[in-house]
Amino acid sequence: MPHCLLPGRTLQLRSRFSPSQWYKFSNSPFKRLRSVCESTDVKILHSCNGLLLCSSPRASGGDTDYFVCNPTTKKIVVLCRPADGPYGSWRGIRGLYLAYDPLKAPDYKVICVWRFAGDLLYKILIYSSETRVWRLSESDEYFYYSSKAHFDRGAYWNGAVHWHCDTDNWLYFNIDKEKLNIMPPPVKLEDGLLERPFVYFGESGGHLHVIEDYSQAAALYIYEMEIDYSGWYKKHEVRLDAIPAALPETTQLRDPTEEGITLLSVIRRERDDDSFLVLQVHGRIVQYSLGYEASRVLVDFDFDYDVYGGGLRSWGWCDAFQYIESLACV
């Protein structure tokens, strides 16, 4: 039998129309982030080993607070602003990421990708929970990169923050060495640009994944990065028409190449057969087992697909974060 999320683990799904409303797929220490902080408009930016990195607009308007919270202990720490000068406000932020590995150290870091106004020049800033201040990375060189880099869609894995791009040079920042490196894309690019879109980029169970949407074949190609960054290899190929095959008749796709499937997350387990995808199909959150090729409904939002068109896709559901309970200090 395919397994669901392990006890103590949860997957949180956020609506763009009600940012503080979250839906849980297993035991969760919170349902609304307002139970952790006082703001009613909280956005999760990143999740890492039991800690969440969030943002919230100030009640006075015109500015944003960024904070790290532990929903299990209900403790939060508001991040201070970077030092004076060009980094004295939050306006240049293009991406913020938590780096926390409790097996290596009790403290965490926040990695910030900073862009200078009007330029494609970037700098990396580092916040440490040990010192409670920001500093520039020891690599004191600015770096140039095109606007094709998705610095807002990174993933923490293997002691580094990784970013996928629409060009043939993908990036990762090694935190211990404080060095920016290049890694290859999983597929050959035509004229330096992607031929098909990537619909997922993230980490689970110590593995870094990227998923390519090959609509002509009505399939998803799941790639995994080698631990030494020598390249990607195709881990799974999932046909879209196989995903809803075991679901109720009301959930069946009319045409899997055109309607209704949105990929939310990849969940890896020690046994490959126990790994699965989490997707939305016609307003239902669905678990699809990669090993057993079986589907089951986790959550049914119970609204009329014919009325709302593309299900959650039309409603703007987009952000899903893996979370595990932790007693980590913030």
UniProtKB/TrEMBL annotation:
> What's the protein name?
F-box protein
Q: Where along the sequence do coiled-coil regions lie?
A: none
UniProt-listed Pfam families: FBA_3
Instruction: Tell me where in this chain the F-box associated beta-propeller type domain is found.
Output: 38-207
Q: Which InterPro entries is this protein grouped with?
A: At3g26010-like, F-box-assoc_dom_typ3, F-box-assoc_interact_dom
